[in-house]
Each structure stands twice: as C-alpha cells, then as structure tokens.
Amino acid sequence: MQWLGFYNGSINGIYGTRTTRAVVAFQRSHRIVGDGRVGALTWQALRSNIARVRRRRF
What mean pLDDT is predicted for residues 33-48? Predict the structure, then answer.
C-alpha cells in the first residue's frame, strides 16, 4: 500500500485503522467493493499494480 501511494506512515506490521483505510482507498480506485478486506480480487489488483510499477521503474 505504501509503495503504491495509498498508505502514509510507518509500517508496524499491524493491520489497523490506517491499513484498513489504505486498502479501502485502493479498492475503490480499482472499482472493487471497499470493505477493507484483502480478498481474491484485491490480491489480483495488487499483484497487477506492483508488476506495472516495477516495470515502469526499471
């Protein structure tokens, strides 16, 4: 989430309020139901976005 620009703050390994908000924002930006849960559709969207960012950076 942080790498994709949806999470600002320190990473502490806890799935708290900030993380939930970041996931919801990511989901909504990809027209996925913004429930804050990282299910199959969210994982798929995350994987495809990370691949695009990696390709773009190199």
Answer: 95
